[in-house]
Amino acid sequence: MSIYTRSGDQGQTSVIGGRVNKDDAQVEAYGTIDELNSFVGQAASLSDEETFSDLREQLLQIQQELFDCGSDLAYVKLSESRYKVTSELVEQIEAWIDRYELENPPLEKFILPGGTPLAAILHVCRTVCRRAERGVVTLGKSKEINAEVLKYLNRLSDYFFAAARNANHRAQVADIEYVRSGKVFGNK
Questions:
Q1: Judging by beta carbons within 10 Å of its beta carbon (0-12, 13-18, 19+), is residue 70 exposed, middle or buried?
Q2: SS3 75
Q3: Which end of the chain is more exposed for a tag (fewer CB within 10 A), N or C?
């Protein structure tokens, strides 16, 4: 079997239940999720198994769930019985965020993406996740979508922020504060 089909040579691609243009909002949404998945894979590969075994395991699980997000968005028409992304996935992300936030130092100012290579790529994941979320919002204006995908992506970008800060913290590297930032976050 060949990996090329030539079926997309005229600018269309297959979705579950039909074909759409490659620049369709549906393809843009799940394509950006696919891009995010690649960056998550890069972050997982940078996660030292000794220091970041929990993070690595989470990232590998997130990759599976991002595939589920793309799948939920790849249907021409979808019934709820086929949805893979559920509120339980969102709740798991929230639990991971809460655990990292307990470990992270207090945050008072805006921070810049960076620090360790792992933290930097997790910040890339955060920004690509936000773009994917915007794409799903756009898609939702023209077709019915699984609303849990939108919630999942929204929470996932917060997860990447908390995980990036935690990657720096565990490596004993300070977050890079935005120098013109006043105190914008209160201590808990």
A1: buried
A2: strand
A3: N
**Alpha carbons 25 and 37: distance in angstroms, whole number:** 18
Distance CA 169, CA 102 (A): 12
Percent of the chain with pLDDT over 70: 86
The radius of gyration of the chain from alpha carbons, rounded to an integer in Å, stands at 18
* CA angle centred on 152, ends 151 and 153, rounded to 5°: 95
Quick one: which H or E segment has residue 16? none
Does this model's pTM top 0.70? yes
Residue (of 113, 145, 124, 133) closest to 59 by Cα position: 124
Better pLDDT: 50 or 44: 44
- Residue 101: how many other CB atoms lie within 10 Å: 16
pLDDT band of 22, cuts 50, 70, 90: low
Confidence check: pLDDT of 186 > 70: no
Long-range contacts of 137-141 (CB under 8 A, 24+ apart): 138/25, 138/28, 138/29, 139/25, 139/26, 139/28, 139/29, 139/73
Residues in contact with 31: Cβ distance below 8 Å, sequence separation at least 6, in sequence order: none
Return the CATH number of the domain spanning residue range 22-177: 1.20.1200.10
- Rounded Cα gap, residues 119 and 53, in angstroms: 15
Residue linked to tokens 């890069």: 42
Can you give the pLDDT at residue 171? 96
